[in-house]
Amino acid sequence: MSAGQPPNPWLSWAYVEHNWGDITTALSQHTTLTIQAVLIAIALAFPLAVLARARPRLAGLVLGLSGALYTVPSLALFAILAPFTGIGRTTVLIGLVAYALLVLVRNILVGLQGVDPDVRDAARGLGYGPTRMLLGVELPNALPTIVAGVRLATVSTVALVTVGVVVGYGGLGQLMFRGFQSSYRAEVMTASLLCLALALVFDLALVLLGRALMPWARRRAA
Amino acid sequence: MGETAGGVSAAGAVAAMTSVGGVGGLNAASTTAGVRSGIVGDAIAWLNDPLNWTGKHGILALTVEHLGMSGAAVLLGVAFALPLGLWLGHRRRGGQLTVLLSNVSRAMPMLALLTLFASSAIGFGNRAVVIAAAIFAVPPILTNTFTGMLEVDADVRDAARGMGMASWRLLWLVEVPLALPVIAAGVRTAAVQVVATVPLAALVAGGGLGVIINTGLATQRYGQVLAGGVLVAVLSMALEGLLAGAQRLLTPRFMTARPAVRRPLAARSAR
């Protein structure tokens, strides 16, 4: 930077004040995309994992396929989807759901498989049917692993939303990219920090949710 | 990029698609199906055009550039993470540091790092990309090196010490050979991740295969976008398969790493 140029600070409150509208729009776009993607992914992952557990052969296929799909870079996935699903929200959402799904299916499956066989036996002895067994015994026992998976999926989704910039729907990534194009350092920095903060807030919220859902885990620790 | 008739018709087809989207109704579905096969056809046509493969911005040149950038980033990452991981593992401390690093790298979007570097004194283009990708290569290499060192049996270390080995010889002759499969697995994870990250370079005026996708999007040639996406995906999956095979061939039977350590799916960051 030569001396003749105007200052281009990394942090500037003036930027935040003047662009408050843009920032909140991007932030809410980012937040809603993340929440929606993770919720859809959970809704899809749970039956898939239950199905995969019932058939071990299918489990191998699901895990192998999800591992292979996971190597596909997000930019490539968006590029493959965009010609069919168009430029915009749908494409980003499908991509986000796909990646979150891969993480969640794995974690839910591992969690369900990790339930102590003795516990399952005891429940069966008490007369639990398959559905009650799943919802009343296996699900609570697998919950720590599932919550860990949801945390992981959520944090990666927050980061991944930014790549949506290639189809014009990247939440805070939109600001990062615009800031880069116009050499506006404050814009790039603010968007990056907000993105990190958003991931942190989501993660903390999920930790608290996990605690509320699993009071027994806290009691055991104490 | 070669100008192909297919590319132009793709632009037209997309224009049709967007206008149809507004109308909706019965014929929307049939038109979309037509657009779909048209785009796949355009992608195949684009890939079949020899002009798109050769030349300064051809697929081959871009692939070489892509792999060159990835190689540089992995080397940088190894140069930083390997000594650090070996030292921390040898000393048996710093576990929290590695966990913290991989957690932060998961939450940090690659795009944020790229645009931050590109707007800083580093400047835009391939240099910013290589540095950013190298930073994302550090956590898997560091974590695996550290884990591999920690997993070396304490009895073996004890025996080596009892034989009078000094700290350095213990490290080089006992710990590193035993930890090598896990370390190599970390480098492999990092390499695949870097190759998958480098396509984003095109967004900050860098090179590599992402350029095909970016140019296609900018000029609304969706056949080219699809072709670029497939090329990037194929490159990543081929590298993953190649490295997995190499690892299987090179690792002696008696010291194969446990799968959980070999492939930390969780430890990947967004790209």
What does this molecule look like?
The complex is a heterodimer of chains A (222) and B (271). With 222 residues, chain A is mostly helical. Helices cover 81% and strands 0% of the residues of chain A. Chain A has helices at 13-18, 20-54, 56-70, 74-85, 89-113, 117-125, 130-161, 172-181, 185-213, 215-221. The longest helix of chain A has 35 residues, at 20-54. Chain A starts with 12 loop residues before the first helix and ends with a helix. The mean pLDDT of chain A is 86. By secondary structure, chain B is mostly helical. Chain B folds into two domains: 1-49; 54-267, MetI-like fold. Chain B has helices at residues 5-23, 26-48, 50-53, 59-91, 95-107, 110-119, 126-150, 154-162, 167-197, 210-218, 222-250, 259-262. Chains A and B meet through α3, α4, α7, α8 and α9 of A and α1, α2, α6, α9 and α10 of B.
Helix content of chain B: over 70%
Could you give a short account of the major beta sheet of chain A?
A: none
Order of helices and strands of chain B: HHHHHHHHHHHH
- Outline the low-pLDDT stretches of chain A: none
How many whole angstroms does the radius of gyration of chain B measure?
Answer: 23 Å
Order of helices and strands of chain A: HHHHHHHHHH
Number of strands of chain B: 0
Number of domains of chain B: 2
Q: What sort of overall outline of chain B do the alpha carbons produce when their principal axes are compared?
A: elongated
Total beta strands of chain A: 0
Q: For the residues shown, what is the average pLDDT of chain A?
A: 86
| Assembly classification | heterodimer
- Text of the CATH class of the largest domain in chain B: Mainly Alpha
The two chains with the largest interface, and their residue counts, are: A-B, 50 and 56 residues
Task: Tell me the CATH superfamily of chain A.
Answer: MetI-like
Q: Which residues of chain B sit in consecutive blocks of at least 5 with pLDDT less than 50?
A: 1-34, 259-271
Question: What is the count of structural domains of chain A?
Answer: 1
Strand content of chain B: under 5%
Question: Mean pLDDT score of chain B, rounded?
Answer: 77
CATH class of chain A: Mainly Alpha
> With helices defined by DSSP (H or I, 4 residues minimum), what is the helix count of chain B?
12
